Amino acid sequence: EAQVTQNPRYLITVTGKKLTVTCSQNMNHEYMSWYRQDPGLGLRQIYYSMNVEVTDKGDVPEGYKVSRKEKRNFPLILESPSPNQTSLYFCASISTGDMNTEAFFGQGTRLTVV
Amino acid sequence: GNSVTQMEGPVTLSEEAFLTINCTYTATGYPSLFWYVQYPGEGLQLLLKATKADDKGSNKGFEATYRKETTSFHLEKGSVQVSDSAVYFCALSAPGYQAGTALIFGKGTTLSVSS
Hints:
Chain A is mostly beta strands and 114 residues long. Chain A has strands spanning 4-7, 10-13, 19-25, 31-38, 42-51, 54-57, 65-66, 76-78, 87-95, 102-105, 109-113.
């Protein structure tokens, strides 16, 4: 079964305490992406990766890091979280190709930074 | 650049009412178009898609037709159910997309259906 697994689902943390949200996919996709979802703003892309060791900034990268050491995993790292990073985060694994593009999303991680 | 604009919500309907959620797009070339749905507490999942002009995507009673002349991909359902309450996202994928923009999403429309 095609799956994108994010962990944790819920996280409450304090300002400045480093955290990592993990994302793993089993579809052998090259393209993966992180989004944050905020009321009234929809989905905004944070970072994406087009393949192993290839990552780049999306629309709202400030305060985030990512890595792609292997194809299946794409963790999101918040080195020093701040309250404005309180949000709902989604990882997506995307099959690419002009006629076959489709995104598969994880269940989401609701992060609260106090 | 490429973009998607969809109607603001929330949309509130009674069960069995007709639903339309408008979506228009701007894109270079001939994009593929998608509707994603997000049920409460879940991630987004693909609802339907269309890959070329005049194609109609359909699933679970929902339909959307790719209209190149009006650059639109409106979502419709003839009779909504309470279980259709969710957030709906219109999205596009432009051919030969530049790095990072594999999928561009609208801001989402919240649908609430009451019995």
